[in-house]
Protein 1
Amino acid sequence: MNNQTFRIDEPIGGGLAVEELRQRLRHAVSGVQPSPDTLDRLRTAVPARRHRRQALAVGSALSMVAVLVAGVAMVLPDSMPNPGVQVATQPDGSAEREREGTPLRPIMPEGKEPLDKKQGESKKKKTSERPRQYGARVPAQVGYIDQWSRVFQQMLPGTFPGGVEPFRKNFTSNTAGSDASGADGQSAFATN
Amino acid sequence: MVALIGTGAVVASELRDRVVEDTADLLTQTYLAHYRSLLRLAALLLDDPASCEDVAQEAFIRVHAARRRVREPEKLLAYLRQTVVNLSRSTLRRRLLGLRLLMPKSVPHAASAEEGAYDALERDTLISAMRGLQRRQREVLVLRYFSDLTEVQVADVLGLSLGSVKAYGSRGLEALRTRMGGQQ
């Protein structure tokens, strides 16, 4: 690498010295003047840019917070409240779900009795023989299926001519052995 | 309580007005002191006179909008100069990319009648010889001989080592000698 420094009296092409180079550079741009409205434009543009950047920073921070909240809600769905579905544990060990104070009843077609009503006695006995289980867990999805099926039944009668029991059975059979199953392998919907 | 809040609002508005006035004053002072030299620096660094004013104004706007983050206020001119150099470099790079990709047969900028000074700049033999130099060589020569910076200051502004600045400067001078000798 050439580390040679420049000398003031060093001639450039045609006898041009470094000092003369300075003067010629300044002379070449001496006629360049700012336009008359430059200062006014700067006075308006500086605060405008500052406000724009502040708004951008605030918007970014808000969107980051929204993304964080949405991410936490997706990662931890159990921590979110399940509206309308409560689990109450009875002293005899059976778990009964209540919706706004009304005991949950399965929706059956007309003329048919719920299965639990026919076999209620034997089931109760079986349940009472089992050890106590507190806080029987009901998956949130089952609660939502039941809740929305009732809403649909009220708003659009005839939407489910066969009732929602097939959907519930299908869902609980898929999730049997996991959260949705009771201790005897039956559905967690088996209520009184 | 209401009177207290009202007094606080009045004080806050006065403070805000004072800050705005101070900002405007500093802006005006800086403009009067340095804007012309920065505009001329941009005119020497760029090969397109039309964008010199844009670059100088953008540098002013950027540095003044973020002036609270400037750690050493006495170095405001150095920040402005460095911003002008960076923006000139970005402008040249963008135009080169545009020439390569978008406009292969673009018409060069023709100075209008109001741009007599820029027209004279175009005709200057020294300027035309300098525009034939490499970008780094031209930056070093302009900062060294037009802005009167030392080699260490040039190295700071350009983000180069001192040895690189010396090498670019000496090679640029040699190339300038060759070009001006060829023109005469």
Protein 2
Amino acid sequence: MIEVRALTKTYGGQRAVNELSFTAPAGKVTGFLGPNGAGKTTTFRCLLGLVAPTSGAALIDGRAYRDLASPRHHVGAVLESTGFHPARIGRNHLRVIARAAGFDAPRIDPLLELVGLQSASDRRVGGYSLGMRQRLAIAAAMLGDPEVLVLDEPANGLDPEGVSWIRRLMRIWADEGRTVVVSSHLLAEVAQAVDRVVIIRDGTLVTEADIADLTADRVTVRVDRTDAMLDALQAAGADHELLADGAISIAARDTAEIGGIAARAGVTVTELSRRGTAETLEAMYLAVTEAGGQ
Amino acid sequence: MIDLVAAEGLKLRTTRLLLGMIPAAVAISLAGVAGTVLVHGGGDRAVLESAKGVRQVLSATGAGAILVLVVGIIISAGEYRYGTADDTFLTTPRRHQVLAAKLAVGSGLGLAVGVVTSLASIGIAAVLYSTEGATFPLDDAEVWLTLAGTLVYTALFAMLGVALGSLVRNQVLAVTGALAWFAVVEHALVNLAPDVGRWLPAAAGQAIIRTPLDGLLSPLAGTALLATYAVAIALSGIRVAATRDA
């Protein structure tokens, strides 16, 4: 499990991460979402001991990264900034890490096969594509068979097939009981794969929720006379919200009930639907990114 | 710690760095020795066979150490140049252990280069002495003391480089800075203030390899001084690595 507690990181007076708290439990894929520059990478670097927090803490199973007995065995990380020596062959990149981590008989060949690099493993990394480097970084993260996986924008540089491969991998890891945290600035990349979302903006937490909890029924309705419908919903005591595109979103009601309210108010319904989890999440994330862009 | 040293050795062996640098270091040393025999000797047997002459010739073996210093810098600063430092510190969050392993590998490399260049130097010196009509005094203690000094000198220069690269993470800056220091700055300082000069790193190095110059420290004092420089810079590097964000 990952626990971030009131984490703050200041760079030259600028707060990259501001009093951020969230948890990522074992057995779930937690999506760590936010626009570019929201503080996702800084949060990960604090969590992994690469950067010292200004205040607060980021803990892995209750411990700071540097206090883990065998970090590579405990945590696997794929960071955007991870570099490779261009003259080193892919296999040797993994051998170096395994040697330093003290893994006696690292399973390098099965890992190379798993990430689809077996035929490129004896080529210099300098000649690898972005996607191949990303695959090598994933193999490196998995060397220690870690219980916690931290992935910073892992889909970058991967083709659609690669992105779907990452999603499947994360699902398998979580189902095996591992803790998986994946960051992305694109909701669509991870939406299908996550069990839980943590959304941040400007280094601050916006939302932290399990996807299961987002499925609270919401009904979306479009009518010819929106004002009359809003009045009628108000009178009926329904928790509702006018969306930017002119539709009305209503909480925890079934569609028949809303149809009834519309009929009694004498308005014509042009569209009536129950909003699914994906749409709810998308609307939530859109609100965050749009607010960030203002 | 053994794993870390092995990993640092593996890092060094899995790039092409040594392929270019080691032959170049040996070549520079050999050129230095050959040049000294031909120029310094000037065809005069007595000069060549004198203790001072032997020291003059063999101390040129140390010339290759400057490239070993560069390798040392790349061992440390190269991790930042290629962005592999993240992976290194993820594996070993206690960063002083990484530097200790790098110092160990660097000094081992320096010793190895010292052995190779020393043997090659004796070979070429013996050949050139005979072509000059002189006899290379292989049984002279001067020969072996100077070559022992070369081993120490090369190992300490490698450690100095590793330490320097940990302090100055910009590899290009560290390499050019170090070369400028040893080629220009220290000479200028020595000329300005000879009393201070003997305490500077290059002069300490010259003392170790028993270069026949006036005013140098004893070889042992030079060793202690150069080692102190390396350790002091390494400690600053550890401080930087521990406090600065990677």
